[in-house]
Amino acid sequence: MGRVLGKDFFVRRPDLVAKELLGKVLVRKIADDVLKGMIVETEAYYGPEDPASRARRGKLPHNRFMWEEPGTIFIYMVHGNWLLNVITEPKGVPSAVLIRAVKPLQGIQRMLRNRKVSDVRNVANGPGKLSKAFMITKDLNGLKVYDPEGPVTIVDEGFSGFKVGRNYRIGVKEDLDVPLRFYIVDEIEYVSKPPVRKASKLD
DNA sequence: AGGAAGATCTACT
DNA sequence: GTAGATCTTCCTA
């Protein structure tokens, strides 16, 4: 039923990991229930040199997980939403990938109930929505996604061959000069909608 | 204490 | 499609 991604997968630059996480399956175990969704949108974040990074102001109590080993779960709150990140690069090098959207595959009824919506395309198409649908909160901070027994894992179920879109990160005040947001073009229905952008040729 | 923050929802034009 | 309120935590003063 697919292989749980190991620690090695995450010991690389966040942009590479972000791109390769597309098509992998996010698995959330709750008691005797399992929720699954294919990752369709991600963003990469670096360390202090990245103005949009949580590590921007150096190591602090709440962002210390950024310096943890690759494959560590890092969750924080923005505007009342929990956002799920996975740490990349070797321990001590702060960087992470934000998982922004998944296409629900299993446990869909439960997700819809968690989110109080009826459209499956609107249940996990955004980082805050995804966390709510998958019941992900701060409690999971510091756990390892490569632990097959853990409540959150990422599995390779063989999805591949899709077209990858790329552009600038959403919602950040100040971005880098490189596009660090990745998404699956064929699954655009399940990808978050970028806020209205001003005249720009990018897309 | 005050406000910002990697967002979302609702109620409008 | 757009504007505004509101979600919760942590940083900064």
Itemize the secondary structure elements and their pairings.
Elements: E1 3-4, H1 7-10, H2 14-21, E2 25-30, E3 33-45, E4 73-78, E5 81-87, E6 96-106, H3 108-115, H4 127-133, E7 152-156, E8 164-167, E9 181-184
The chain binds a DNA duplex (13 and 13 nucleotides) through strand 4, strand 5 and helix 4.
Unreliably modeled segments: 197-203
Kindly report the average pLDDT value: 92
Radius of gyration: 16 Å
* Major β-sheet annotation: 9 strands, antiparallel
- Protein structure class: alpha+beta
Form type: globular
Hey, roughly how much beta strand do the residues contain? 25-35%
Instruction: Give the SSE order as H and E letters.
Output: EHHEEEEEHHEEE
Number of helices: 4
Can you describe this structure in just a few lines?
The protein is of the alpha+beta class. It has helices at residues 7-10, 14-21, 108-115, 127-133, and strands at residues 3-4, 25-30, 33-45, 73-78, 81-87, 96-106, 152-156, 164-167, 181-184. Strands 1, 2, 3, 4, 5, 6, 7, 8 and 9 form a nine-stranded antiparallel beta sheet that branches.
